[in-house]
């Protein structure tokens, strides 16, 4: 087949544009998820509260998991380990870029881990605080 | 000294001019057979009782070599030289009993150049017991382990039964070995013969007065021909048997939901490792899953439950699926609480489970390198060494 120079240019431009669109779309989901929780929250996100949650010892959930760092790393930049010796990627978005980009997963883990550690579901405010803290790490 | 027992019933009064002398009794193949068999039985017992599971390959090879030796010995029993031939030591029951009585009362009457009747009975007994042990071993290998020539035809239940036969006859074999060695020592004491030495050099001392021996020669060409024919036939049979896929193993399709949802927190367990009812009960109680909240959305629960129902333990006929069908009633969802799991791992020290790369008892794949297939072959066990920091 024979392409003219302009058509090759058009195709190349389309490819570059779609690649660009794909990368910018990847950054989107996390912001959408945070925005959704923010909309339900009473106050603007407070990353400091998120950090305090990450480090707090609750002991009000299941006895084997009194705090986030039972399984997650001592700092968000460190990886963790489940009680079944499975490695967990660092929670910090700078270390694990695809963190909090799947809404279904985010819901699943908030539901499980808030009841497991705190003993109740987390509020939208807590969720947005927590996510903003880790997104900035 | 060596002629003393003989003089009891046949005084050496000089009627014969022939002095006691050394004659060749055991030919080289017979001697080589004997000591090779001794080594294989030794390896078999060692790898069967003492060596760790992952030495099973060596146990199986000892078995295959034993079969080869037995076939050879039976063929050589027809085409070998005089005293290797089975007919030369096939004594009648009365004959054997009389000889045993003589031995027990420490009064042997006759001297035998080849095997004496009690020894001969032992040899036939050992041959029969070894044939039973090797055949039952092959059935265990095919039925329980899903390996070897009978993997495609032997069910787990047959393998399980064969395992009991195998174990029983190995006990019998060990008792017979004790009697065999005891008999050799006793016979040596009574006649002054060193039978162990004879089985090395092939030479035996015949008493004074023994007439010249009719010594038929071996026919190695015939022996090789018959042995060759047997093994060609066996190879042909094995080739066809090898084409049959191992029984009791199902083609397991991957399931993304199962692998990602369950595999997020722990190594993915093969669905054959628990009965269907256990999987279903577990999927209904994910809010308290071994002390953690592992709840899932309904769609995922339904999909994974369907997958585990379709491929749960009852659909398999493997060692693992059969063994783990028996649960700890107090912990019906726990594989590592099943009596079989506990029994098979009780010699592994707690610190081994804490090693890097293992971490917990439920991390099957850390040591069972073929866990994803549900086979759990003994030879595929590889316990990670403690890593130096």
At a glance:
Chain A is mainly alpha-helical and 137 residues long. Chain A has 4 helices and 2 strands, in the order ααββαα.
How does this structure look, described?
The complex is a heterodimer of chains A (137) and B (389). With 137 residues, chain A is an all-alpha fold. Chain A has helices at residues 5-40, 47-55, 103-118, 124-135; strands at 80-81, 87-88. A two-stranded antiparallel sheet of chain A has the order 1-2. Chain A has one domain (29-135): Orthogonal Bundle (Cytochrome Bc1 Complex, Chain D, domain 2). Chain A contains four helices and two strands. The relative contact order of chain A is 0.18. With 389 residues, chain B is mostly helical. Chain B folds into two domains: 4-243, Fumarate Reductase Cytochrome B subunit (Up-down Bundle); 256-380, no CATH class. Helices cover 53% and strands 2% of the residues of chain B. The interface between A and B is medium-sized, with 18 and 19 residues.
Shape of chain B: elongated
Strand content of chain B: under 5%
Number of strands of chain B: 2
Strand order of the largest sheet of chain A: 1-2
Largest sheet composition of chain A? 2 strands, antiparallel
Gyration radius of chain A, in Å: 20 Å
Features of the shown structure:
heterodimer; A: 137 residues; mainly alpha; Cytochrome Bc1 Complex, Chain D, domain 2; two-stranded antiparallel ribbon; B: 389 residues; Fumarate Reductase Cytochrome B subunit; 2 domains; 14 helices; 2 strands; elongated; disordered N terminus
Blueprint (SSEs and pairs):
The complex is a heterodimer of chains A (137) and B (389).
Chain A: H1 5-40, H2 47-55, E1 80-81, E2 87-88, H3 103-118, H4 124-135
Helix pairs in contact in A: 1-4, 2-4
Chain B: H1 4-9, E1 21-24, H2 28-50, H3 56-79, H4 93-104, H5 117-143, H6 156-191, H7 195-201, E2 203-206, H8 220-243, H9 256-263, H10 276-283, H11 298-311, H12 319-323, H13 339-345, H14 350-353
Antiparallel strand pairs in B: 1-2
Helix pairs in contact in B: 2-3, 3-5, 3-8, 4-5, 5-6, 10-11
